[in-house]
C-alpha cells in the first residue's frame, strides 16, 4: 500500500511539473509571437530626461529611431543633455518644464505637437528623493513627493490622452519603484507617493485599454544612475547619504541604468501591465505579498540600524560627501553620475 501511495504521489508531482512546464512554454511562445511595438518613427516624451535614468532612456530611444522630447526644470542641465543627445544623432527636442505645473505641461505638449506631431509614447520618469527618518520630514516634503510622483504623471497623461484616444493607440510608462510596493524606512514621502503612482497607473491601465492605450507600471529596485548626488538628505545627512550611496553602488543590490532602461523599453514594447526591474524588486514585492508580517518585521529591524537624528534641515547629496562615500566602494555610482549628467547639481 505504501509503495502504491508513493507511486501515485510521484505521478501527481510529475504531472504537475509537466503541466507547469507546458503553461510556461505556452506563455513564452505567446509572448514571442506577439507583434512587437517599434519605437522607430514614433514621438516619445520622457519627463526628467536631462539626467539619470531619463537621459539613458532617451539615448536608447534615439538608437531605436524615435523622435525624443525631454523636459526638466533646470535649463543648464537640460541643455547639456540636448547637446549630448544631438551629437549621437536623431531628432531631439528639449523643453524647460516643471511637470508639477499643469499649465506648463499643457504648453510643453503643444510645443511637441508643433515640432514632432502627437505623442505616441509618454514615459513619466521625473522624480525626487528625500532620505531621512520620518520625524525629520515635513508636510512640505510629502507635498513635494506627491506633486512630483502623482500629480505630475496625471497632468502629462491628461495632456496627451485626447490625441491617443482619437487615434486609438498609445503607450504610457509610469516609472514607480519597489518603494511603491514595499515601503522602505527613511524614504516614507517617496514610498507614499510611489504607492499612489502605482494605484493611479494600474487604474489607468484598466480603463484605457479599451481605447487602445497600454499603460505599463515599472517598479525598479536601486539603479546606478548617479542620482544620490542630486537627492535630498535629512537628519544625520552624512550618515544617510553614506548608506544610500553604498547601497546604490553594490552590484547585487543595484542594477546599471543601461540594463534597467533596456528592460523598461522592452516592457513598453510588449505592453506589459507591470515590470519589476531587478531581483531585489521582485523579491521585495513577492515577500510583501506572501509574507507581509515578516516583511514588516525585517523593515523594522533595518530601520533600527539606520541613523535616528531628526534634524529637519535638508542637504543635497553632493554636500554630504565623506571619505567613505568617495572611496572605491562607491566607484560605480560616481562613474554613473559622470556618464549621466548628474555631477552638476542645481542650487534649488
Describe the protein in words.
The protein has 348 residues and is an alpha/beta fold. It has a single domain, classed as NAD(P)-binding Rossmann-like Domain (Rossmann fold). 53% of the residues lie in helices and 14% in strands. It is built from eleven helices and twelve strands. The strands form three sheets. The protein has a seven-stranded parallel beta sheet with strand order 3-2-1-4-6-7-11, with helices on both faces. A three-stranded mixed beta sheet has the order 5-9-12. It has a two-stranded parallel sheet with strand order 8-10. The longest helix has 32 residues. The radius of gyration is 22 Å and the shape is globular. The N and C termini lie far apart (77 Å).
Sum up the structure in keywords:
14% strand; 348 residues; Rossmann fold; globular; seven-stranded parallel sheet; 12 strands; three-stranded mixed sheet
Shape: globular
N-to-C CA distance: 77 Å
Stretches where pLDDT is under 50 for at least 5 consecutive residues are none
Task: Return the average pLDDT rounded to an integer.
Answer: 89
Helix residue percentage: 40-55%
Name the CATH class: Alpha Beta
CATH-level-4 superfamily name:
NAD(P)-binding Rossmann-like Domain
**Sheet of most strands:** 7 strands, parallel
CATH topology (fold) name = Rossmann fold
Q: Into how many domains do the coordinates divide? A: 1
Strand order in the largest sheet: 3-2-1-4-6-7-11
Number of beta strands: 12
CATH architecture: 3-Layer(aba) Sandwich
DSSP strand (E) fraction? 5-15%
What is the structural class?
alpha/beta
Provide the succession of SSEs.
HEHEHEHEEHEHEEEHEHEHHEH
Radius of gyration: 22 Å
**Total of DSSP H or I helical runs spanning 4+ residues:** 11
